[in-house]
Design brief:
Blueprint lengths: L1 H24 L4 H6 L6 H11 L5 H25 L4 H8 L2 H12 L6 H16 L8 H8 L2 H28 L5 H27 L2 H9 L1 H27 L2 H8 L1 H12 L7 H18 L6
Helix pairs in contact: 1-12, 1-14, 3-10, 4-5, 4-9, 4-10, 5-9, 5-14, 6-9, 6-13, 7-15, 9-10, 10-12, 14-15
């Protein structure tokens, strides 16, 4: 059950990181705020690559590149949802990645789950939808709320993160087959990903002609605290996430990871003073129930 401990640790850290990044997006653009996660670990990533590049096959680099690109896009989309009116919607709709991961795993990565597990994932999906604050009063209003840009960003974010999980899992398996321990292999994959993401962001900023200006903004006194907290917590949280995927099945990690929505909702209600409704609480109950069912040995179900 190592993957459960890693997942819970990652959830707690990611909730704090999302709050800090939300603060950054009030002062800088979403791309720069997203990049803030990866700048400080960049030198360490270069060192790790220098020590391990001899074990990098073409297949490994393919998974790493896709992982870095999709995670970068997913995080930018997530930050755009967080710029919306309700903080909890951004996290919640991004977590539809769990139901999306079922389809993506079966279609592209040959990872299948049992019928019981499919039902549990679908139950979790219902819990997620009930916590989205989507408008269910009538068909017209529901479709209007679904077309809200923040909701669309959240759904696309979920797709990116679903693909990301399978790519980093595949890259980690390649390293473990070479004799690396699970956690070490996943951490190496993380640093390769950080290196690639920094390269992407630098190219984007050079094209925008704002590389020096935006880096200076991150280190400015009014942003420095949020920047450092975001970078450090993100790195530790990512080590936990990658470790969780190295030990557990992708769909298991993502289902337990939906507990992050519960934390996001509580933050939304008690810290950000945003509105809630009875459906939120029903969704919380269903989400907890699905996680409990997933952790019960399937022979007991």
């Amino acid at each position: 059950m190592m993957w459960v401990l890693f997942t819970i640790g990652a959830i707690l850290l990611q909730t704090i990181r999302n709050l800090e990044q939300k603060n950054l997006t009030k002062k800088i653009d979403a791309i720069t705020a997203s990049w803030s996660r990866f700048i400080l670990p960049f030198p360490f990533a270069i060192i790790v690559i220098g020590l391990t590049y001899q074990n990098s096959s073409a297949e490994f680099l393919k998974y790493i590149t896709l992982n870095g690109l999709l995670q970068m896009i997913g995080n930018i989309l997530l930050l755009k949802t967080l710029q919306g009116k309700n903080y909890s919607i951004g996290i919640t709709l991004s977590k539809t990645e769990t139901i999306q991961a079922c389809l993506i795993g079966a279609l592209f990565y040959k990872e299948t789950i049992s019928f019981i597990e499919i039902y549990i994932v679908f139950l979790a999906f219902i819990g997620v939808i009930l916590m989205t604050n989507l408008n269910f009063k009538n068909r017209t209003e529901f479709l209007i709320s679904l077309k809200n840009p923040s909701n669309i960003y959240g759904l696309l974010c979920g797709s990116c993160f679903a693909f990301t999980a399978y790519n980093l899992k595949s890259a980690t398996i390649i390293l473990t087959s070479q004799g690396y321990a699970n956690l070490l292999a996943s951490t190496i994959v993380l640093f390769y990903t950080i290196f690639i993401q920094n390269c992407f962001f630098i190219l984007i900023k050079i094209k925008q002609g704002s590389l020096k200006k935006d880096v200076t903004k991150l280190f400015a006194s009014e942003n420095k605290k949020s920047f450092y907290i975001t970078a450090i917590i993100s790195l530790v949280g990512s080590i936990f996430w990658y470790g969780a995927y190295s030990y557990g099945k992708v769909i298991y990690v993502k289902t337990v990871g939906q507990l992050e929505i519960v934390l996001a909702l509580l933050v939304s209600i008690f810290y950000l003073k945003e509105r809630d409704n009875i459906l939120n609480y029903i969704g919380i109950f269903i989400t907890f129930l699905s996680v409990i069912l997933l952790l019960i040995p399937k022979s007991h179900l």
